[in-house]
């Protein structure tokens, strides 16, 4: 009995202790719950702030891209205007050609980055804008569609010839940016080639106007002007080759003898280094490619009669260099000269 009485206080203490521990555990659980709720609220606020930050960052990126696009457009337009003005003020053809190259390099499609706002659609928009500007700008130098002689001394004719000759130029930035991409390089010449191809497809019913590139539609509004440009291009490139090979540009007497009387002359390749011979080959390729472009779409090749006469009276003498690569280049050059001479042309 006494033993039972003694155990009661102990049991009471155990119960009280258990109740106290239970209360403490409940309090701890409540505190953990409150902390979890608070953390959840904090996390939610952080996510909201992060979302707002991401949105602000995205907005900033969009604004930066838009600013870059606007600055590029404005600066490029100013540069093109300055290049054309300087080209018109220049008297020497080499300087005109150099400024014409810079003019084509400064079109925005040449500076397309494939980043930010510069998606594929934007590239086509820039190409269309360039085509529209170029084809209207070049009317300043030839309001007619008549044949322009590569030997003309008229300043406007020389400006026209400079632009026609450098159509193929591609800015180094475009080359570097697209070097490892699937996108093809774009030039004013490639836009003209595409326009003529799509024009033919349109005539044949293979495509509709809506399926044509914007640049093609803008260029084909002045198709006769495109053909005039291509005729001027192959004639002046050939004239540059003939001038270099025959030295007709360095001597007035040579001009008279070669041009008027058709005096025979020789192109001695031993007088030219590897780079110069390769450059001649490049000229001839450009002539052949441009003529092929004209005939592919049903146009006659118009050629300056004086340049054709001089070209026909030239004799090519191979060098004695035994290096295989040099011999191959010379052989290719001679074959290309013969192919140009064999072309069916309409003399002007």
UniProtKB/TrEMBL annotation:
**Signal sequence, start to end:** 1-22
Q: Tell me where on the tree of life, at the top rank, the source sits.
A: Bacteria
| Keywords from the UniProt entry | Signal
Asked whether the UniProt record includes Signal among its keywords, one would answer yes
Name the record gives this protein: Lipoprotein
Q: Which organism is it from?
A: Bdellovibrio reynosensis
């Amino acid at each position: 009995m006494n033993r039972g009485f003694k155990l009661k206080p102990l049991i009471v203490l155990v119960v009280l202790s258990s109740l106290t521990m239970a209360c403490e555990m409940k309090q701890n659980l409540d505190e953990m719950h409150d902390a979890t709720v608070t953390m959840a609220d904090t996390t939610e606020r952080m996510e909201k702030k992060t979302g707002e930050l991401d949105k602000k960052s995205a907005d900033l990126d969009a604004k930066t891209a838009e600013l870059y696009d606007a600055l590029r457009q404005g600066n490029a337009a100013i540069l093109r205007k300055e290049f054309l003005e300087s080209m018109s003020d220049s008297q020497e053809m080499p300087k005109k050609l150099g400024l014409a190259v810079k003019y084509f390099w400064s079109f925005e499609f040449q500076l397309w980055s494939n980043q930010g706002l510069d998606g594929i659609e934007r590239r086509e928009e820039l190409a269309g804008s360039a085509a529209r500007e170029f084809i209207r700008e070049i009317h300043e130098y030839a309001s007619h569609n008549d044949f322009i002689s590569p030997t003309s001394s008229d300043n406007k004719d020389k400006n026209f010839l400079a632009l026609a000759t450098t159509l193929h130029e591609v800015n180094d930035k475009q080359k570097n940016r697209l070097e490892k991409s699937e996108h093809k390089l774009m030039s004013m010449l490639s836009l003209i080639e595409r326009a003529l191809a799509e024009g033919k497809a349109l005539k044949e019913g293979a495509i509709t106007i809506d399926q044509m590139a914007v640049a093609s539609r803008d260029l084909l509004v002045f198709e006769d002007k495109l053909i005039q440009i291509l005729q001027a291009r192959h004639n002046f490139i050939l004239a540059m080759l003939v001038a270099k090979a025959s030295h007709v540009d360095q001597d007035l007497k040579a001009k008279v003898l070669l041009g008027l009387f058709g005096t025979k002359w020789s192109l001695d390749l031993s007088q030219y280094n590897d780079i110069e011979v390769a450059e001649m080959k490049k000229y001839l390729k450009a002539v052949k490619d441009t003529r092929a472009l004209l005939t592919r779409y049903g146009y006659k090749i118009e050629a300056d009669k004086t340049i054709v006469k001089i070209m026909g009276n030239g004799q090519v003498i191979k060098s004695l260099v035994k290096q295989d690569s040099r011999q191959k280049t010379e052989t290719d050059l001679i074959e290309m000269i013969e192919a140009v001479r064999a072309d069916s042309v309409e003399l002007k």
